[in-house]
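Data deposition worksheet. Section B asks for the primary sequence of the deposited chain exactly as it was used as input, without tags or linkers unless they were present during the calculation. Section C holds the resulting structure in token form. Section D is free text for depositor observations; keep each observation to a single sentence. Incomplete worksheets are returned to the depositor.
Section A, Depositor: J.P.
Section B:
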Amino acid sequence: MSQPILVSGTIGIDTIITPYAKANQVLGGSASFASVAALLFAEKVDIVSIIGSDFPKQFEDALLAKGVAFTGVERTPGASFSWTGEYFDNMNKRRTVCANDSVMVEWDVKVPTNLQQHPILVCCCMVPAQQLKCIAQCPEARLVLSDSMDKWLRKQPEMLDAVISRSHITMMNEDEAKEYAKAATITDAGEYLLSKGAVYAIIKQGEYGATLFGKQADGNLHIFRCPAYPLKSLVDPTGAGDTFLGAMAGYLSTLSPGQLPNFEEMKRGVIYGTIAASFTCESFAADSLLSMTPTTFRSRLQEYLEICSLPEFTE
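Section C:
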């Protein structure tokens, strides 16, 4: 039996441009991807977010059909969060063409009373000040996971510091982590994130996978390097990091309540997140993620474990 998860973040409308195609007005938002991925393992996932009157009903219906609970989603007469991004030949790199995030910036976060007791809180990428409001309103959360992006480490660095200090698990992509830490290597960046108060830090590296950092009992650095699943076709990586975070949180929700995961459990969570994220990258928006099933997930996981298996070594 899993513990309930509360996911906070954006629900929105994306337009994605790649060197090969373009997708207009598709389902987006960090909380959208994370909540669906969390349901791979978790039985109850609630979202706290805000949408406008222009949010397409079919998007909401798709999330509800997967089992995402919308009771914590506020509705406003204005426009929904929207983002237009462009990817280049190196799909690890992207730029924001335009973003309408006023609804998120102005949002006065209010977590419904009946959701404040959830033991696991996932603060997906959004305004750090609002992540802090969610954390403050969920004092019963025994496991807090957070993500961020370059915009906020430049605009609200002090707030971001505070979010990480209140997170048990924090995550950034490689460029962001190096910029935030003023570090030349991911190892230095990982240690810096841990020094801010997180128990575990994960640095995403796109098609090269992810690296997990933690401290051993003796204070030495503990590192796990996880390669990405080798996709034949990369369509759109938007939401892959959010999917990763959600799937990992979903798995962690199945562990003993009230205890922080150990490093071996975190390694397993990183692998599950990696596999779930690979589905997101196979289509525009959340199409492949929404069609993923426990059976297709387990099949890909088994294939991945065989690809990554090491030969036995003898002294």
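Section D:
The longest helix spans residues 263-280.
DSSP finds twelve helices and 13 strands in the chain.
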